[in-house]
Amino acid sequence: MDRQLQFFAYLLESYSQHKEASPAEILAQWDEHGITDFIYDMYEMYHQEAIENAFMDIESLLATGRPAW
């Protein structure tokens, strides 16, 4: 498994715990909003910062369709 996929799995698991939902539920929500690929492609940015920054960005994507920054 490459690093980008490993981080995506970590991010999905961490975010699902943060939201008290299953990873399957979170992934379905991301897919429904069309942001899964965007989140996956943000590896370079997300893995270098605090995980909470990725959470804020995901929240913005879900609420507005745009990244937080």
> How helix-rich are the residues, as a percent range?
over 70%
Low-confidence stretches: none
Largest sheet: none
Radius of gyration: 11 Å
Calculate the terminal CA-CA distance, rounded to whole Å.
29 Å
Query: How many E-type strands?
Result: 0
Computed structural class: mainly alpha
In DSSP terms (H or I, runs of 4 or more residues), the helix count works out at 5
Mean pLDDT: 96
Tell me the β content: under 5%
Shape: globular
Strand/helix succession:
HHHHH
Give an overview in words.
- With 69 residues, the protein is mainly α.
- The protein is 74% helix and 0% strand.
- It has five helices and no strands.
- It has helices spanning 3-18, 23-33, 36-41, 43-46, 51-64.
- The mean pLDDT is 96.
Question: What's a concise summary of this model?
Answer:
By secondary structure, the protein is mainly alpha-helical. It has helices at 3-18, 23-33, 36-41, 43-46, 51-64.
List strands and helices in order, with pairings.
Blueprint: H1 3-18, H2 23-33, H3 36-41, H4 43-46, H5 51-64
Helix pairs in contact: 1-2
